[in-house]
């Protein structure tokens, strides 16, 4: 009871401080331009989910491979020292119809859109218009942007859900100092994926017909502050883009810092399963932070929806536990492959008829090139 009261006091103090800071920033002209930061959404032709944030325009821009550690740190500082705009209305428009959402205390807005007519998309990506309705700063002008949501087409074969840290890129997520150094002093060009990952994910996106219709989703315990950093990293290295489901690490009424890694990732994976119904999924993760246990729970909650699980072996300490989870999955009719090499997962996917043989050579070539670049 005392802890709950203390948490409420701390949270109210945080809100008061944020309001005073924002009011001061607007009055002094430090906050003079705003931005809508949409995060890629997803759903079906009948329901669309989109989340985003209204912030002071940080002017971060794209990185260069030659950027110094100080410049990288400066940009990362801006990402985390954000100015959130609470309690303002954002309008989303698609096919001439509009919906309104209001930002919360942290500047986040969330849309669950039920189009009046089912979307008739022939390609996976659909665009929405977003516009800030409220006037917040002097001479604000129009604040608007486009958002993209991925809607599986009739040609979809399966979806892919992947972790990021130590699954796509080595980050040392189980070694805090190594992870902090990589995050704050590096940039999108210097975050190098595991060899062959980009070509493998491209092959999964193309499936067997080569049409790039299979949607990819990324679920991570990284904070939303890193969203643009992660999407830039994927774009730079040729990893197919898709919705990123991250989390807010700040103080809230319910928690001092962040909820558990397990609960966050499980809830986000299951949100994808709920909003993207009727298609099976390949799940990809690593052995370091409970991905196998999370995916086991997904198998139990959504029987028949998981095609395969690929787990990158990064933790010798957890190997016995992971193999035990693998046996439980097997008893439920789902295979899990523990790999140290992306090519092994690709060869397995090829043997099951999920990717094209032509794409295997691309994965081999990329793996060789990545190995040369990292040597």
Q: What would you say this structure looks like, in words?
A:
It is a single chain. This protein has 375 residues and is α/β, with parallel strands linked by helices. The protein has ten helices and 13 strands. The chain has helices at 2-28, 69-80, 176-185, 197-206, 227-236, 261-275, 291-301, 319-331, 342-351, 357-374; strands at residues 34-43, 48-56, 89-94, 97-102, 108-113, 125-132, 144-150, 159-162, 216-223, 244-247, 281-286, 306-312, 336-339. Strand 1 (34-43) and strand 2 (48-56) form a beta hairpin. Helix 4 (197-206) runs parallel beside helix 9 and helix 4 (197-206) runs antiparallel to helix 10. The longest helix has 27 residues, at 2-28. Residues 158-313 form the Phosphatidate phosphatase APP1 catalytic domain. One of its GO terms (molecular function) is phosphatidate phosphatase activity.
Domain count: the total is 2
Task: Name the CATH class of the largest domain.
Answer: Alpha Beta
Strand content: 15-25%
Helix content: 25-40%
CATH topology of the largest domain: the name is Rossmann fold
CA-atom Rg in angstroms: 21 Å
Number of helices: 10
Cα distance, first to last residue? 55 Å
Number of strands: 13
Structural class: alpha/beta
CATH architectural label of the largest domain = 3-Layer(aba) Sandwich
The H-and-E topology, N to C, reads as: HEEHEEEEEEHHEHEHEHEHEHH
In terms of quaternary structure, the protein is: single chain
CATH superfamily of the largest domain: HAD superfamily/HAD-like
Strand order of the largest sheet: 4-3-6-7-1-2-5
Major sheet size, sense and barrel closure = 7 strands, mixed
């Amino acid at each position: 009871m005392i802890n709950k009261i203390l948490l409420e006091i701390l949270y109210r103090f945080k809100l008061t401080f944020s309001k005073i800071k924002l009011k001061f920033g607007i009055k002094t002209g430090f906050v003079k331009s705003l931005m809508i930061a949409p995060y890629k959404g997803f759903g079906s032709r009948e329901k669309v989910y989109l989340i985003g944030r209204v912030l002071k325009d940080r002017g971060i821009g794209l990185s260069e491979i030659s950027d110094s550690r100080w410049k990288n740190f400066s940009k990362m500082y801006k990402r985390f020292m954000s100015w959130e705009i609470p309690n303002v209305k954002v309008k989303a428009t698609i096919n001439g119809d509009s919906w309104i959402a209001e930002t919360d205390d942290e500047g986040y807005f969330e849309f669950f859109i039920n189009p009046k007519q089912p979307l008739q998309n022939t390609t996976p990506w659909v665009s929405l218009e977003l516009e800030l309705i409220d006037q917040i700063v002097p001479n604000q002008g129009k604040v608007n942007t486009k958002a993209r949501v991925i809607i599986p087409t009739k040609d979809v074969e399966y979806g892919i859900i992947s972790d990021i840290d130590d699954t796509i890129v080595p980050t040392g997520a189980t070694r805090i100092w190594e992870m902090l150094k990589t995050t704050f002093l590096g940039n999108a060009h210097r975050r190098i994926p595991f060899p062959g990952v980009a070509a493998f994910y491209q092959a999964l996106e193309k499936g067997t017909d080569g049409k790039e219709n299979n949607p990819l989703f990324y679920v991570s315990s990284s904070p939303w502050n890193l969203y643009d950093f992660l999407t830039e990293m994927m774009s730079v290295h040729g990893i197919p883009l898709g919705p990123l489901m991250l989390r807010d690490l700040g103080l809230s009424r319910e928690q001092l810092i962040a909820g558990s890694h397990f609960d966050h990732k499980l809830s986000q994976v299951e949100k994808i399963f709920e909003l993207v119904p009727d298609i099976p999924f390949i799940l990809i993760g690593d052995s370091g932070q409970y991905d196998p246990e999370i995916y086991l729970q997904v198998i139990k909650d959504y029987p028949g929806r998981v095609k395969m699980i690929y787990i990158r072996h990064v933790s010798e300490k957890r190997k016995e536990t992971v193999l035990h989870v693998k046996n439980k999955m097997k008893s439920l009719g789902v295979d899990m492959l523990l790999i140290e090499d992306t090519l092994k997962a690709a060869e397995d996917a090829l043997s099951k008829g999920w990717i094209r043989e032509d794409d295997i050579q691309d994965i081999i070539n990329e793996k060789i090139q990545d190995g040369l670049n990292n040597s």
